[in-house]
Structures
1.
Amino acid sequence: MKFDTIIIGGGLSGLISAIECARAGRKTAIVSAGQSALHFWSGSFELLGNVDGKAVIDNPLDLVPSLPAPHPYRKIGAERLRKLLSRVPEILKEAGLKSYGTLDRNHLRLTPLGFMKPAWLTLGDYVAVDADKPLPWKKVAIVNIYSYLDFYPRFLAHGLENRGVKCSMAAVNIPELNVLRKSTTEMRATNMSRFFTDEAVDHLAAEVNKVAGDADAVIMPAVLGIYSDAPVERFRKAVKMPVWFVPTTPASVPGVRCQLSLRDLFIRLGGEFLPGDTVKGGEFEGNRLKRIFTVNLGDMPLEADDFIISTGSFFGHGLIADIERIYEPVFGLDLNVKGGRTEWYEKDFYASQPYMTYGVITDDKFHPYKNGEEIENLYATGALLAGFNALKEGSGAGITLATALHAASCITE
Amino acid sequence: MKDDTLRKEYDVIVIGGGATGAGTARDCAMRGLKTILIERLDFTAGATGRNHGLLHSGARYAHTDPESAAECIKENMILKRIAHHCIEETGGLFVSLPEDGLDYHAAFVEDCRKAGISAEELDPKEALRLEPSVNPDIIGAVKVPDGSVDPFRLTTANVMAAKMNGADVLTYQEVVGFLKEGTAITGVKLRSRRDGTEREIRGKVTINAAGIWGHRLAELAGVKLNMYPAKGSLLIFGHRINRMVLNRCRKPGDADILVPGDTICVIGTTSTRIPYDQIDNMEVTPEEVDLLLREGVKLSPAMAWTRILRAYAGVRPLVASDDDPTGRSISRGIVCIDHAKRDGLEGFITITGGKLMTYRLMAEEATDMACQKLGVNKECHTAEIPLPGSEDTAEDKKRRSHIIELSTEQKAAEDRHGTLTGKIVSDDDAADALVCECEQVSVGEVNYAIEELNVHNLVNLRRRTRLGMGTCQGELCACRGAGLLERHDKCTQRSLDDLASFLDERWHGMYPVCWGETLVEIQFTSWLYEGVCGLDPSEVNVSDNPTQH
């Protein structure tokens, strides 16, 4: 099979670059092994939330020149970053996802444990507040679903009360969930969300109205709207005060919805999505990748003019560690890993872990190297890249999106 | 707990919440003595919770130490009766590899018989049939009645028995001094590890059952006890490779025992003398990991491709023979010291040496000595009366399982709590919901542990229920556990600190084996807690030493 562009990896990075390639009229395919980091997404994208241990609020892009040299943001440059990333809200909107936020100023998102963290874009129905203003509520009702364990009203209340908001707490049930509760492992966010449709949404809203009292707003776990925001819209209309959602521990309803929405947009644009398949390797001619082979397709190759690899970091299995070494399993691309296994970690869990910064090294256009030779029609994007600690920087989504858009624009322009 | 501990005068103060201390408190309480058990951290936080969990048949010592071997097999049979919910009768094999030869093997069978340990020689082919995971190159095999014992469960059961017989129990109370009248110890000064408050407790006899920490306690009491810490490191694998305990049939050496227990199996140990000031810093080195794997795969080749969950290390309390100040003659047997006789210090007893297997016998000796001092003439019944949780017989349990079909999580709970499983509230579906999916721990079980088993933090909860001990190492259940604990504790900041410390504690055992799926798991955990949940180390207090919980 022959394509113009093949993307290896169906996470956020792969989907975004694939959408942009398909939109530009290129025959595009994604080979996706399975779940990605999107499946535990918080509902917010971070651009740059932390530099030198300090929270960043105003003009995060101004700090790009101060980042260490191999950083992907440095390679792209602040000006081009702004241009590329300003596309993101439009793409999300096209996929059916409303978002809030601006590149000039981070807002704060409310985390499941009640902390406030800087973010760039947050889904429309999730808590996003201005860093310098008091919270927009005097009193909120934190409402959980009865017996749901992945939402922590008291931790949220602790965080909100520290910021001067009065909190009430309650848990509600609707009979529709009782069947789910019969099994001891089913009361999880994504499972519940499948039950919250039509009348069940009305029933839930009625229960929430009973316990919300005179609160200015209701805060609930993100358990509605896995396939679309229709149940959320219906729910918000039926509840007598504004409703805001807080993400839960995995699997994440906004994450699954984001993944499905972007995938559907890609397919609408004529893209070919090959799920549940793993790329085993490829054949090179000179400095070009000619074709790749997958587990499902056996010896039938997939050919393309350009390839993008966005297979993620260790938990995406884009990088593999064994007792002796760390390697990139698809092509054996060159990495920035130095030293043996004792060099990979710090003993303090909360220190900046060296393994977090490992990944594929590239030139300024994100072409990776194999045995020191640049591969000119292959791009590496997202968490697979080397040279930054996205967790400590609060930059994971920004890097993922910017490198994906950058690669797509190099291919299509 | 109700705080009338200050006004009471106890007959016996037992220091040390390991198996020996808990067993001693049980024995004392059963003999009608007014007893209090004091532990500076949590039960099993020392050597008790940091070994193989091997229910020795005694075969391991049959050649080198026949006396210990005889003690072991006797206690082995007692524990199978009184603590069967803590035990799995897996059986064990002693296998000879070509490099070991058969000389040791020949003497070994004879030594076992002399010590009263049933030892059945097997054809290597037969051994492979019984235990398919064993190295197929073995040239000899002997079957012995080894098994596995859960030291957390065993200690908790002893604590419960002590409490049921009227004993008081305090955890997170460190002994910082002794009360003295003339030449007698009359009590202890305690400092809370949780809030720093101090208190005094009076007792006629104080029993030092603090393992390696007993050296420091003796010093505090003004007497000298020569103890030599030896560190042993072990690795935990993500599932059971073997059904039976596997031992190398040779002189005891490094990494020569693989024990299956619960959902995992454990290879160990190494043995290194460490300076006394390092006993609270248990860290497994890369060299130890390499050694354990290199030797371990010789026992069972599957170890080479099985996921390693974590590494841990414990300290053996080796005691110098009483009259030898140089410490050259080390005894592995039980040492019970009457400090009145030895040092002229009344009201103070040290019970040490020995091993997990002989904890009950050690408790009996110490309690006998305390009774003698108190002029109490009561017999020991700890070998006949079952521990809480084991009040039925193994046969009862088997019979019941034919009538009632239990769900996986009910089976898991029953394995952990035996006949006490009934105390776990399971009156609605919310109580049955699983908190820890890897180890099948329900909300009801967590609540039971919090209410009845001296649980103050997530590490305590892990030791009582196995929450966070499975393949995800707390990644998905730590948060849920913290949520449930907070409902009882009602101090949200402390719960957040505890959650942050628990993740650091899990990491401490993971970094020595941080490759493969372990690295995948920890990266996911970091993203989930520091990323999605925003758990910021600058906004929480992480406990200084991840091994001190």
Note: The CA atoms of residues 297 and 303 of chain B lie 5 Å apart.
2.
Amino acid sequence: MAKNFAMVNKMKKIKVIIIRTAGTNCDYELKSAFELCGATVDRVHINELISSKNKILSYDVLAVPGGFSYGDDIASGKILSNEIKYKLGDNVKKFALSGKPIIGICNGFQILVKMGLLPKPENFEQISTLSYNDSNKFECRWVHLKTEKKNNDRTLCLWTRDLPDVISLPVAHGEGKFVADKKILDDIEKNNQVVFRYCDKNGKDTVYPQDPNGSLNAIAGVCNKKGNVFGLMPHPERYIYALQHPSREGYDGVYGWGKKIFQNAIDYLK
Amino acid sequence: MKVNTIEILNLNDKQLVELSRKSVLSLSLVEMKEVQKYFRNIKRNPTDVELETIAQTWSEHCKHKTLTGNIEYTEEKGGKKKVTKYKNLLKETIFNATMKLNKDWCISVFKDNAGVIDFDKTNGVAFKVETHNHPSALEPYGGSATGIGGVIRDILGVGLGAKPLANTDVFCFGLPDTKSSEVPEGMHHPKRIAKGVVSGVRDYGNRMGIPTVNGGVFFDKGYMANPLVYCGTMGIIPKNMSEKEVKPGDLVLVVGGRTGRDGIHGATFSSVELDKESDVSAVQIGNPIVEKKVLDTMLKARDLKLYRAVTDCGAGGLSSAAGELGEKTGLVIQLEKVPLKYKGLAPWEIWISEAQERMVFAVPPKNKNKILNLFKKENVEATFIGKFTNDGKLLLKYGNEVVANMEMSFLHGGVPKPTRKAVWKQKPIKKQSPVKVSAKTLQEDIKKVLADINVCSRDWIIRQYDHEVQGQTVVKPLQGSSITNSGPQDAAVIWPYTVVKGTKKGIVLSNGINPEYGKVDTYKMTASSIEEAMRNAVCVGADPEKISLLDNFCWGNPNKPEILGSLVRASQAAYDLSLGYGVPFISGKDSLYNEYTIDGKTYSIPPAFLVSSMSVIEDVNKTITMDLKNAGNSIYLIGITKNELGASVYSKVKNFKNGIVPDLDVKVSKKIMKTIFSAINEGLLESCHDCSEGGLITSISEMAFAGDKGVNINADAIKTSEKMTIAETLFSESNTRFIVEVSPENVVKFEKMFKGIVVSKIGEVSNDKLLKLESKKSKISVKENIKNLQKAWQKTLQW
């Protein structure tokens, strides 16, 4: 009986929602990534979500992809973050506090930060931001990232479990410099909420261009205290296969380390 | 709204010319007289709407009058004259080659907004490269942004619409270190143009979510007043959607951006030489997010089969978009229904405005509400503005008032074909005197060539473009052995796995351009550019027999016989090479009248023939890159090196006046490229890079620092066609040469495969990060750290 139940559970299809709007760009590759990990994925336009507010709660994973939502006019991600916050508000907070996985990549990270879902969804107030790169220009390159581990191989963030100490992913952004007040930054550090930091190939501190934006504490990605809400500037959905890596490195001969990130969220729910 | 009737019936020749000039119609006297004849026949004067419509439809930009017109070409060689008459240069050369080759994998060539070839059983891939030169000269940011926006719409407007997968861009700019005092009045400084153009492509391309994966930049003082901006887009389309058909009764739907006063006369203005009075309002204003919304929604409408035809509003605006769709049927448009950015546009302005981000659809009446709802759901403006008829007439109304009423047959077939004269005289060719250098000079020269503005790293540009978005760029514009090294990759490879699930196939994009050769001979320039584009594709693993090409001519004023002569020569080369290689051209574009007048003196650009190539490969896993991989591997040079320093980068750096511009033997070239393809396909090569600007030593240096590896090179082993000095050997730009890396276990197989081809084993890969070059014959020994080579290559273009 128990075994059968486990099997049924294992076969449960995880439902992922990708929120999109005018200017969303990375939704197809993100969909492919989740599908490769066994999920069913819907790309849903924000207008549709606004017209049926509870729809979002029927999903297991929420993903906000990269791009230039509404052209990043005003500030990157600002308009969509307001739409989500004020037109779907409670439901998104509910989603986050229920412990379901949420990921925001690049513009998606900017959106999560600007609506205040990161780094502290309990408060749902913006307390940090992603500002212009120190180089003052758009930067597209592969970078090394240090996977922050709380103690002995266990990450706080459910998305980054069992990753190597250093992985590489591509970045492509003009506004990726993570900025917050010292007190907030200290809190984030103390709670082990930093998930990825820009580093050199050995995991040591680095400088431009390997640190592409000059983020405080070289922060490339953060999560909430529970570890289910994750935002990052680099693009794991562009490194699903080894073939996508500049020198074709990966694991199991075929896959890229980005895949592991999505697999973690799906496995966590199974 | 006021519509003016224009007096034309009683004008004399002088007055006709004046009318054309004053109203920026860009019509010649012969054409004006044809217009006059038409209206004398129907016994009335034209309205401003009618006259403007004719001017747009007959513009060089839309009709390509020169390339499709009558040309009498005289060639003078060795005191002998030979005259050739063309009735339609394009049809008799480039297009003719494509027809003769008749490849079964060509789906749609030279008839739609882009060329389409087979991808797999169910999908095709479309490719188009456009130019946006005049606008980019006046307003670099807006000009280039709308250039990329426009070519993306070409891909959206091919067949029933393709999904864009990649962008390419190639620029020609003036020299960035030009003194301000040398910049003509009314023009921007070349560096400002370069920065503005790059930013424009960046902001539009990145926002569209299309990776910019391949391109090039060529700097020359000849492009100071007339920069060239080539923008390309490649997309994927289901084969059963590669054709469109308009039926009488279908409704005309305009979708996307609103119409404003921007881009008035863009099409006709592109046939006018620039001067300090040139009007910036001819430049369009772009908004990529509006276009992205159109892209997202129209592909949905396509898959639901809600429309029968689509095309983009480009040059000539609605007048050419709706006009083209309704050419065979006729159409009636209510101009007052066109959504406007602001009030106050005259009917003719609405009709020809080149306001951006607009697509025109032919929608069967039964789908009227469905398609409107689909667009509305995602906040995309869509408005029905008229109907396709079956009377062969263009009928434009504003409210109840008829503002234009003309026969489609006159509009599309009425343009007269004058005969233009073209001449070409062969210039005397002289070899340079032998180039002798010391080891020390040679070492410096290698770095000087790497640092040359036309060889150096373009990473400042490339890294501002998102070349990874969509996650399908498996061979990238910069490649290296680790993520911190990089060298210039010959071609990009897109693996469209998010669109075609489970596919192993990929699309290779590359280009070739070298206006320096064209200053000597446009035939050789065109031949070399075609081979360069093909070499680049072959370097990553493309089959040279499956390559398709796009032509882009940017030339000066074709009314000048010498300029037209050089254009004819380039077309002949394109024809010869296309047939010789068996590779078809599938689409093309020309931009003429690239000249500028200062103080009464007219300056024309150096002719530029850009070749863009697209090919489909069977297995992306087999592709290789240009960076050296492992110490102990052998380095071979494939192909023979000739004494061809003419118009080379080395000649420029050393200020040599003479020299032979590289020749091309198509038979040898074909054999070599086919063999390299087989070698890559069988996994025999670890890396491959072609030799082009800067010669073989430049290629070896690039492979070394990209791979973070050293090399030991024996210069005496390089096979040459005659006795050459070491500098001539290292810097000659002879065509059909590749540097390849072979691992020890593959050496025997490799050498067997290349039997009968000139191959030199010139050295091996080392771990010591030094470029070591030895020539016992010339008693020269050079040792240079590859980091210094990389620095030289990277420092020039870091703005």
Note: Residues 561-581 of chain B form the longest helix (21 residues).
3.
Amino acid sequence: MPKRLPDDPLLRRLVAAQLSRRKVLLGAGGLTLASMLAACGTSGTGKAAQDGATAAAAEDLSAQEKEVNWANWTLYLDYDEKTGSYPSLEAFTKATGITANYSEDIDGNDTYFGKVQAQLAAGQDIGQDIITLTDWMAARLIRLGYTQELDHANIPNAANLLQNLQDVDFDPGRAHSLTWQSGFAGIAWNKEAVPGGLRRVSDLWKPELKGRVEVLDEMRDTMGLLMLEDGVDIAGSWGAAEFDKSLEVLTRQIADGQIRQVKGNSYKEDLISGDALAVICWSGDITQLNFEEGGKWEFAIPESGCTLWSDNLMVPVGSPHKANAEALMNYYYDPVNAATVAAYVNYISPVQGAREAMEKIDPSLVDNPLIFPSDEDLQRAHVFRTLSADEETDFSGRFQQAIGN
Amino acid sequence: MNVLAAPAKPAGGPGAAEKAGGKTLQRRRGRTGYLLILPGFIFMLLFFVLPVFSLLATSLYTKPPGADIGQFAPALEFGNYAVVLGSYWPELLRSFAFALVATAAALLIGYPMAYLVAVRLRGRKLLQGILLVLIIAPFFTSFILRTQAWKQILADEGPVVPVLRALSLLPADGRLTATAFAVVCGLTYNFLPFMTLPIYANLERLDTRLIEAGSDLYASGFTTFRTVTLPLSMPGVIAGTLLTFIPASGDYVNAALLGNNRDTTMIGQVIDSRFFRVVDYPGAAALSFILMLAILVLVTAYVRRFGTKELI
């Protein structure tokens, strides 16, 4: 049995390089201190800002080290509760000989960025070879040079990527990222308490729902829906004036007590407890809730349209297993494997042919509009345009203030 | 305060014996003392003093023109403090107000609890043990889970709200979650053991003969409490209030889970959102520093006013 390498990726590198014990200890001491300072302050980032340099990609050790480390969100991969394993990942290992270490490390784009930013800025290995982040955060990482360029020759299945996702403004030609899953942000309501249902975002402001409405703390989804309601093309070239107008609506509804709370994933608990009767929410959540709690809620795309977001697989700059990561991406872009995942996670699969493959896996899901949306639905789904760095700081600062933070 | 002197100590005290010892012994003792302090000193230096300086440095960083998100340059930008104070003084004041009310409530609940276990049940070891375990029992579950549980209990359709509405203690559309009341209750509940245990530890050593003496001298129960028990237990009360007030004023879990987005935001939430959401590291660091200084000033003033020698 080979000796287990330490978990810390830096230490692992040092040990793998077979440095003397003394050097390892010295290095570790220095690194701990450095990373501590980096975590408290931002010493590393300050320098990057001045010279504009970005760290070089790490050397690829995929041929020697048959492993790939993947950080993802919770409930985002087919999971077998009986065996406690991920069947599709095991099949991947069987097919390729690459061991996949899967971790549900990501519980928010912002918090994950805060956690790994200092290391990425220094070009260090964060212990993950694939990270899965939402469009706007993917845009930020790619812009900052925190990701490695993908070699599409290693990912022939990437050709299966849906047409509308092939060219995105933050990553032309998908040089640095591939879509994992997509979803809508729309509105949902408790069918018992709101028998008439809701059709527009402004229906959330009905007096009978006062204090029972919750919206997402994800700026692009909540503001996206409010701006669509105000007639703004959120994918187009809008500016601060449009943003401010819709932000005022949000501020007023919070001040009036119409909106009970602004929440992340935890709005689901309030739907279950009954504190929230109508919400701005993510499509897949409602499918899962209905499955677990007995079909009490209904999801709809508002008349003015909904937002479409995607999470993207990327290889962080310090990862030494890029080729392995590409093998894994290639595996999940096989339509059958993509359908296996979609059958479990209930989000929109980005892979062409997954719908046909689904016929064999679970025919009841083939016509589920939240997994395989119709062209009309996709027409009504809009991607919040990528913001410049200054806009992002400005808008998210004011959004946070509006929601009381 | 005369009563304080009542427990008679042997004349001379422990100091007399020490004086008899030779000078070399004293010096050696001094050196051992320093050596014993060393690990703690190094720990504090590495994990408290250095980070504080790093925090201070970060709070003065500036954003160079054209810098991307998360990129800052070292500077002496004292304006950061003015900016965050100007924007977030209400949240700062609210945090202290909430923490103060929660501390007072925890004292009112915790003191009788500690008194019951430490004084009234003195000698009944088993019962004392059981009650102490009950006081600490909430710690066996995670902080977040406990707060989450309160959310379910206080929910609009939960067991409490409909009853209160039926009794007209709450208006028909009244609610408990997502209110300032819920946040203060959450803080009180979560920090109650920190209040109770120091007071218990103190009252446990209370000489009950002093209370007897009080009634012998025709003092009413209240007078005895006011002039004997309470002054003697002040070190416990001070320790308890500090252990409650300080973490409560920086807390953000209760406000995030039990509050709303209007009038319950505490400074911890703001620091969290400035750091993670807006990626304004200098602003978040400046706010953290202000919070730390404000607590230091408040606590110093408090301990000076009410503190006893036994505490320090």
Note: Chain A has a mean pLDDT of 87.
